[in-house]
Structures are given as structure tokens and as C-alpha cells.
Design brief:
This is Cysteine hydrolase. The chain is an alpha/beta fold. The protein contains eight helices and ten strands. β9, α7 and β10 form a beta-alpha-beta unit. It binds tricarbonodiimidic diamide.
């Protein structure tokens, strides 16, 4: 496929080559979306993230149909917690912290049911899954190597939560030289205001660390 353009992107049209642009889906894990998971242990209303799922499923289908590289990420830690900094381990209410038993197994631990991606967005064979111990998808992961090996230069960024893992990953990708289009209605936050302002921050100041568009415009561009 040749280059396509999302004309309504802010602050300016976003042109990308689907063969060299990855759809990055950040942390659409049961532990963030379902009651009993990490998100809820932090005191959040996890129901707020559900609205993202059908929109993201549609965008994922369009990206797969266009042959785009798909990259899923999962935030989590080894069962022995050796990759979890003590400062992160101490966060949150006692008995409801990373590694503690939750409704879907130990909270945010690799291999547990809650750590995995929700059924609606389950990775297909051949799609990349990056397991990350931090908020950003580059820290202590192979993401940089994966992108280089596939000659990926631009990213469509989606997932949860807007102001935490989506922001950290997008900011870092921008510093590493990737053009990032954040798909606003395919990102979600437990806090509506954080989502709104988090999205606005990205394309402000002439696109200080990225572009923003809605999924319908991206799907239309790929069709
Ligand atoms: N709590 C929260 O908003 N987010 C996280 O802990 N991780 C991600 O954003 N994935």
C-alpha cells in the first residue's frame, strides 16, 4: 500500500505508510479493565475504560486488513517480582498491591489470567506482544529492536491509560524519532478530565510530541 493521509488530524494532516507504521495497543489487560484487577486496587472505577473496546476492535480490524504491523503491550512483572522496583511495589493499599492475590490471579504478574489482554483484542499469531515492567513501552523491553528490524518509523498509539502508559510511551517514542498519531477515542482513562487534557497536550504547541485524530478518520484513510 502507498502512503495514506488522515486529513483531520491535529495539529496538521498525518501521512503514513501502513507497511512501516505500527498500530500500538497499550495495556488492554484484564487487570486494568475488569473489576478486581490492578486498576481497581488503585481506587479507580474500571467501568470507564470499557467504552474504548469496541472502537479499538474496529481500528484493529482495519489495521489488520491493511497489513499493518500490530504491537500489543502488557504491563506486568515476573512472579518473583525481581523486575519490580520497591518503590512501585509499595504503591497502593496494603494487600492490594502488585503480586497480591486478586480476582484474576496475582495482580499484574506475567502468566496470570488478569495480566493478559482482554478477549476482544486478543493478539493474532505473528503479532508482537511486548511485556513491559514500566509505564513506557521502551523501558527494559525489546520494542526499540522490534521497530528497527521492521523499519517502522511511525506509530498509531492506542490503549490505556491516556495520561499514564499512553503518554509515557508516546513521549518516549517521539524522543526516539518516531512520528506518533494518538487515536483519541481508542485511548481511555479512569479520569475523564485527564483523558481530555491528556489528549489536548499531545498536539498543542504545533504538535509538541505528536498528532491526534479519531479512529473513524484513520479507518477511512486505510479503506
Ligand atoms: N493507573 C493507571 O492509570 N495506569 C497504569 O497503571 N498503567 C497504564 O496506564 N497502563
Amino acid at each position: 500500500m502507498t502512503e495514506v493521509t488522515v486529513a483531520t488530524a491535529a495539529p496538521a494532516p498525518f501521512t503514513f505508510d501502513p507497511a512501516h507504521t505500527a498500530l500500538v495497543i497499550i495495556d488492554m489487560q484484564r487487570d486494568f479493565l475488569l473489576p478486581g484487577g490492578f486498576g481497581e486496587t488503585l481506587g479507580n472505577d474500571v467501568g470507564r475504560l470499557a467504552q474504548v473496546v469496541p472502537r479499538l476492535a474496529k481500528l484493529l480490524a482495519a489495521a489488520r486488513a491493511a497489513g499493518m504491523p500490530i504491537i500489543h503491550t502488557r504491563e506486568g512483572h515476573r512472579p518473583d517480582l525481581s523486575d519490580c522496583p520497591p518503590a512501585k511495589l509499595r504503591r497502593g493499599a496494603p494487600s492490594k498491591r502488585i503480586g497480591d492475590p486478586g480476582a484474576f490471579g496475582r495482580i499484574l504478574i506475567r502468566g496470570e489470567y488478569g495480566h493478559d489482554i482482554i478477549d476482544e483484542l486478543a493478539p493474532h499469531a505473528g503479532e508482537v506482544v511486548i511485556d513491559k515492567p514500566g509505564k513506557g513501552a521502551f523501558y527494559a523491553t525489546e520494542l526499540s529492536d522490534v521497530l528497527a528490524a521492521r523499519e517502522i518509523t511511525q506509530l498509531l498509539v492506542t490503549g490505556v491509560t491516556t495520561e499514564v502508559c499512553v503518554h509515557t510511551t508516546t513521549r518516549e517514542a517521539n524522543d526516539r524519532g518516531f512520528d506518533c498519531l494518538v487515536v483519541s477515542d481508542c485511548c481511555g482513562s479512569y479520569f475523564p478530565d485527564f483523558h481530555r487534557v491528556g489528549i489536548d497536550m499531545i498536539s498543542a504547541q504545533g504538535g509538541i510530541f505528536g498528532w491526534v485524530a479519531e479512529s473513524g478518520a484513520v479507518i477511512d484513510a486505510l479503506a
